[in-house]
């Protein structure tokens, strides 16, 4: 879905060129017009040996005035579309509803000391918990979906039992340009398509911004608001509409955006927000999905952070939302759900991302180290629409692949009535020889954001910790699932739970092992951490729970100096890894 506009402008031109030539006695400053490869540079230069030579400031000031007038003109057109062309907004894209309560954005906060309000922070929490989420830097003037917000990282850095909190925007190219201009300019992928006329008008304005040089789509259009990952000696902020951005935590807890990591794709390409990092090999496995063939491209990144040759998947027949996938020791497993992407639907005045009830969902299985797609095969799984995968592994000598992941029931309401969608956590058993799939739910609750001890990625897992869904990324608590228990009678393998209390909501849980360097440590020997917001007191807290406890006992609570909006995915990064960034 997010890739929809990345291929719209294939021949966009380079941004403003600022060239400076220096010699011991001559300096020439050249300020070109936009897109100088299509027109000559016109400058006036007075020349004198042994003196400084500069272009006339007249052209610079004229160019700035023209650009300012264009910027104001495009903004006026945007405002006209929002006020007079958009139909009445449905609640899922109306900012009055989308950004209400604790979904409202917050300002950046520099590193600020926190109070440990209750208990004590365990010694293994030596590092930083970083969570990503949407946080629009400007009040939306028109339609706005929750997924459209600019990425903001909320970090709590812990050392010797003390905590420092900080939140910063991911300084993407999109964020930076819009910050300089003073208002949004990039089309919101999830909310822009309110009608055919509005869509045509928005893309006309966007095209004008590109050809005028106001925005260079080759430098990225993503908001980096979805997740955080660490591999190849680097820390990344992700969204699947763009390539990742490298970030860094300073010793004082501040967050810095370094750059767009263009080594992982071409200028108009993107990468998943859910790369899988194998702790044993150090490699990351990733992919991108597209609205053009090939609709799926799989690739690996070695332990040094170097991308390996791509495997283009032409056997995938149509574009669909592939938000997550799973890996085992020998395989990668991709879902192909009923959530399809059809840009042609825009002509009919519809959203390009929609649910196709006639499509039979599939799983695609490819060898992990495949060099092409020859050995990839697809198996139909009627009624299975995967959003997030908790883990996968192999059993019976590799003849069976077990995957634990969510399934969106009543998926037809995904876009317009998400409160009617039930997210079921399921166990799938894929018979590699017979090419069949059996599946069953492992909990009766509405669950999402399933996480594991990260050392067990791709390996047989006994425990999964999942968030109990209230609404979207707003979660009422966390449960611990024991996959060794039979579910034939009860349909539920919950062995522990913790609910945050009336009016209190958290997000995705994060598991932190107590002894990360001990290979004999028990799988559930560690802690679950999360941000929790109390809607009654309007306060956010960082809570630490004992992952082995039958009640997921709270062992520490840190009062945060600022509200943390509900968001998406995060991770804990050890101090020893932070120092190597």
Category by helix and strand content: mainly beta
Mean pLDDT: 89
| DSSP E strands, number | 35
Which assembly state applies to the chains in this document? single chain
Spans of at least 5 consecutive residues with low confidence: 1-60
Helicity, as a percent range: 10-25%
CA-based shape: globular
Strand content is: 25-35%
Rg measurement, Å: 25 Å
Protein name: Carotenoid cleavage dioxygenase
Keywords: Dioxygenase, Iron, Metal-binding, Oxidoreductase
InterPro entries: Carotenoid_Oase
Cofactor: Fe(2+)
Characterization of this structure:
InterPro entries: Carotenoid_Oase. The protein is mainly β. The protein has helices at residues 57-85, 95-98, 173-181, 196-211, 575-578; strands at residues 18-22, 27-31, 109-113, 115-119, 127-134, 151-159, 162-169, 227-231, 234-238, 245-249, 255-260, 276-277, 284-289, 296-301, 311-313, 326-327, 331-336, 339-341, 353-355, 362-367, 377-380, 389-395, 400-409, 422-431, 436-441, 447-451, 463-471, 474-482, 494-499, 504-505, 510-513, 526-534, 539-546, 554-559, 570-574. The longest helix is centred in the first third of the chain and has 29 residues, at 57-85. The chain starts with 17 loop residues before the first strand and ends with a helix.
């Amino acid at each position: 879905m997010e890739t929809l506009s990345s291929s719209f402008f294939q021949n966009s031109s380079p941004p403003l060129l600022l060239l400076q030539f220096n010699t011991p006695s001559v300096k020439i400053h050249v300020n070109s017009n936009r897109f100088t490869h299509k027109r000559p540079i016109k400058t006036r230069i007075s020349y004198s040996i042994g003196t400084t030579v500069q272009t006339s400031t007249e052209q610079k000031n004229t160019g700035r005035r023209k650009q300012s007038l264009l910027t104001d003109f495009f903004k006026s057109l945007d405002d006209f579309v929002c006020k007079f062309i958009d139909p009445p907004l449905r609640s899922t894209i109306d900012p009055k509803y989308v950004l209400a309560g604790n979904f409202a954005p917050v300002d950046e906060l520099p590193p600020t000391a926190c109070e440990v309000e209750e208990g004590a922070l365990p010694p293994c929490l030596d590092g930083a918990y970083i969570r990503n989420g949407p946080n629009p830097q400007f009040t939306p003037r028109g339609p706005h979906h929750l997924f459209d917000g600019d990425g903001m990282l909320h970090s709590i850095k812990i050392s010797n039992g003390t905590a420092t909190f900080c939140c910063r925007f991911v300084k993407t190219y999109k964020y930076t340009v819009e910050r300089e201009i003073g208002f949004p300019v990039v089309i919101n992928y999830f909310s822009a398509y309110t009608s055919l006329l509005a869509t045509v008008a928005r893309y006309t304005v966007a095209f004008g911004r590109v050809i005028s040089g106001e925005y260079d789509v080759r430098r990225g259009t993503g908001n980096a608001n979805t997740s955080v990952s660490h591999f190849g000696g680097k820390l990344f902020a992700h969204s699947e509409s763009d390539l990742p951005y490298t970030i860094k935590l300073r010793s004082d807890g501040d967050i810095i955006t370094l750059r767009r990591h263009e080594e992982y794709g071409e200028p108009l390409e993107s990468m998943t927000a859910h790369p899988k990092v194998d702790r044993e090999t150090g490699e990351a496995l990733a992919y991108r999905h597209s609205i053009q063939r090939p609709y799926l491209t799989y690739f690996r990144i070695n332990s040094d952070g170097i991308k390996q040759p791509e495997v283009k998947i032409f056997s995938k027949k149509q574009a669909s939302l592939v938000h997550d996938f799973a890996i085992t020791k020998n395989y990668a497993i991709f879902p192909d759900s009923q959530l399809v992407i059809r840009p042609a639907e825009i002509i009919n005045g519809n959203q390009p991302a929609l649910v196709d009830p006639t499509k039979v969902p599939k799983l695609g299985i490819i060898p992990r180290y495949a060099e092409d797609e020859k050995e990839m095969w697809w198996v139909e799984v009627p009624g299975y629409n995967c959003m997030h995968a908790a883990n996968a592994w192999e059993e019976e000598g590799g003849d069976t692949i077990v995957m634990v992941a969510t399934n969106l029931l009543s998926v037809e309401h995904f876009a317009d009535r998400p409160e009617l969608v039930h997210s079921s956590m399921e166990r799938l058993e894929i018979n590699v020889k017979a090419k069949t799939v059996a599946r069953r739910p492992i909990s009766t609750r509405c669950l999402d954001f399933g996480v594991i001890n990260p050392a067990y990625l791709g390996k047989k897992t006994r425990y999964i910790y999942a968030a109990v869904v209230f609404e979207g990324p707003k979660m009422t608590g966390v449960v611990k699932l024991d996959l060794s228990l039979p579910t034939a009678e009860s349909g539920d393998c919950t062995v522990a739970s913790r609910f945050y209390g009336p009016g209190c909501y958290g997000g995705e849980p994060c598991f932190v092992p107590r002894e990360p360097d001990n290979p004999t440590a028990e799988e559930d020997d560690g802690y679950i951490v999360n941000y929790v917001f109390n809607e009654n007191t309007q306060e956010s807290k960082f809570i630490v729970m004992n992952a082995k406890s039958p009640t997921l006992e709270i062992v520490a609570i840190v009062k945060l100096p600022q509200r943390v909006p509900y968001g998406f995915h995060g991770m804990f990064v050890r101090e020893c890894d932070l120092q190597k960034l």
